[in-house]
Amino acid sequence: EFSVGATQLGQILNKASHNSCDIILVGGAACKAVKGMSDSSSQYTASENESIVWEFLKGRILPGIAALDKSYPYQIPWDDVFSDTTQPLFVDIGSGNGLFLFQMARNWEGLNFLGLEMNEKLVVRCLQDVASAGKRNLYFLSTNATSTFRSIVSSYPGQLTLVSIQCPNPDFNKEQNRWRMVRRMLVEAVADLLQVNGKVYSV
Ligand SMILES: C[S@@+](CC[C@H](N)C(=O)[O-])C[C@H]1O[C@@H](n2cnc3c(N)ncnc32)[C@H](O)[C@@H]1O
After folding, report:
1. Interface pTM (ipTM) of the complex?
2. How far is the CA of 173 from the centre of ligand 1 (A)?
3. What are the residue ranges spanned by the domains of the chain?
4. Which of 100, 117, 123, 177 could form a disulfide with 169 if both were Cys (CB 3.0 to 4.6 A apart)?
5. What angle do CA 45, 68, 143 make, to 5 degrees?
6. Cβ(96) to ligand 1 under 6 A?
């Protein structure tokens, strides 16, 4: 009934599930194929309606997810993150490899720098560099800044003085990238939270 590839995949997943691996099956066909050839002790999380999952994985901001993100109260332990939380805050949205913020944090010890970056791998690397450099005015968070900026930044004890957005999308000509990060909800959050005479730097 199933192709050789599907059978092999089913066997691999079956083995993985017995080795404490969390497996998420997406789509009706995948659920049917894998469950059909697994033994009853295999554990899977199954999502038969795949379209919403693909939208999420593609990075689209679905209204429901954005609303959840927006209202989710991020608990950032600011006192653990920065040595002096009364210092003004500079937020770089889509901080990428973090090099810009590293340079800024070295030159401006009197400010705190926060990078918001969706790519978790980049954030992990940046945080390792922060720890090895012993910087206490620089931090990175892995998040979709478009929907979480307000929730994260509104709990900062000091003032938000500067926000930068640099090269937000790698290929502006692709329809799916256009305005992906810079949306009304982000612009409104920045405008609401920025201190009087605060600045936005965008290229
Ligand atoms: C072209 S790179 C620019 C990186 C950096 N600002 C620079 O100028 O070198 C765009 C970055 O924005 C990140 N990004 C895109 N949308 C984002 C979002 N909604 N929230 C957080 N980061 C996002 C991407 O993961 C990528 O690292």
Report:
1. 0.99
2. 16
3. 4-58, 69-202
4. 177
5. 85
6. yes
